[in-house]
Amino acid sequence: MARAGTIIVGTGQAGFQTAASLRMEGYQDPITLIGEEPHIPYQRPPLSKGFVLGKQDAESIELRPAAFYKDHQINLLNGETVVAISRPEKLVEIASGGQLSYDSLVLAVGASNRKVAVNGAELDGVVYLRSLAEAILIKASLEKAQEIVVVGGGFIGLEIAAVACILGKKVTVAEALPRLMPRVVAPLISEFFHDLHTAHGVKILCGAAVSEIVGAGGRVQRVVLADGSSYPADLVVVGIGILPNVDLAKGSGLPVSNGIAVNEFLQTADENIYAIGDCAEFPSPFTGSRVRLESVQNAADQAQSVAATIAGHRSAYRALPWFWTDQFDIKLQMAGISAGYDHVVTRGNRESQKLSVFYFKANKLLAIDSINRPADHMFGRKILAAGVPVSPQQAADESVDLRTLANTSPQHDAHTAGQ
Ligand code: FAD
């Protein structure tokens, strides 16, 4: 009997990479890649950077040209939504009608924007940024808008604030918590980016919860904060986080928590169904806890891991997490997961705009954030992936060469080495 092959739901970074990696693994069975967005798979990071700035267009951010899918016998169904999974029959149901059978099913369904829950949130001119369609809307809106309020001082909010500022707009960022990017970086990094944005003329408001968005004639006019202050806006970009898309999994009886629950092989409670990327909650060997990560690295590396497993080379997922953000001319690169740190030491300083922060817990190195110090990031990744012991004293001492430390690792992690 002919094999049904693999169905991948979601044409984002994780879904695309699963299909590509399956073929690289020599997988011969049918592959169907289904995504509800109308476009062929594209990269999201440029949406809040070069795309809105006008330096990149839709074609230049495609993960592969359209011919790739035909050439690799990947049946790409874009503009199609999977509405249900029937696990006993190993079938998915698609919105346009019909059912498709699978041997293996990969849920790479990503996440959706968290909506701001205040009066006025539905006004025209209140926008979010996750998809190419939303980026196109923001780009067009920025051509006319002059006063922009960004709700949320996380990565995406700050990237958009920087882009709008470069485009000559008057920009205000309202972050509810006391500092920028509070959940992921140390105060020193928050302060650096606060100063960076302020120096370019962006108004940064921390401890600034939005209480209402006011409009006229159905269109946004100003944003009101909890302290009663009010900021004029002809465009409001909301970047207050994302929620994993778990409904499809939940509807088929698969366990979900902060994401679709998977084991170290990225397998759900059903051994034929995997979940990867922004939608998946998995056990991290780096934190010793279950985590859900939102990054290109995680989506792409989990896809490669699942493709290997489906192709018969089963191995546990243990790639080191890393991430980057670009704001103005500054690149912040992050390696490892700093959650739970109790101590930091630094190399470099804010004045030179070259700075690395090393996060420790009980003297164990957890993570490194680097601003314009790419070598710290590169060697730091090798050190963290291999678990090379580094003391806070060594980390703070510029005369201790990170390259040398990285190369002392007996169990150098081949998976992260070449990236
Ligand atoms: P997604 O990219 O969300 O893809 C999931 C896809 O599944 C979506 O197209 C969705 O429409 C589709 N889908 C969902 N349900 C169904 C269904 N039932 N049927 C069919 N299709 C479905 N990461 C970094 O590391 N560095 C950065 O600088 C960076 N910048 C970013 C900037 C922006 C503006 C955004 C939005 C993200 C950024 N990220 C960055 C995060 C990174 O892009 C994501 O972590 C990554 O794209 C996640 O990939 P994914 O495939 O898991 O999910």
What's the structural blueprint in terms of helices and strands?
Blueprint: E1 6-9, H1 13-24, E2 31-35, H2 50-53, H3 67-71, E3 74-78, E4 82-86, E5 91-94, E6 99-101, E7 104-107, E8 111-113, E9 126-128, H4 132-144, E10 147-151, H5 155-166, E11 170-175, H6 187-199, E12 203-206, E13 210-216, E14 219-225, E15 230-232, E16 235-238, E17 242-244, H7 247-251, E18 256-257, E19 259-261, E20 273-275, E21 280-283, E22 290-291, H8 296-310, E23 322-327, E24 330-336, E25 343-349, E26 354-361, E27 364-371, H9 374-386, H10 392-396, H11 402-406, H12 414-417
Parallel strand pairs: 1-2, 1-7, 2-3, 7-20, 9-16, 10-11, 10-16, 11-12, 19-21
Antiparallel strand pairs: 4-5, 5-6, 8-17, 13-14, 14-15, 18-19, 21-22, 23-24, 24-27, 25-26, 26-27
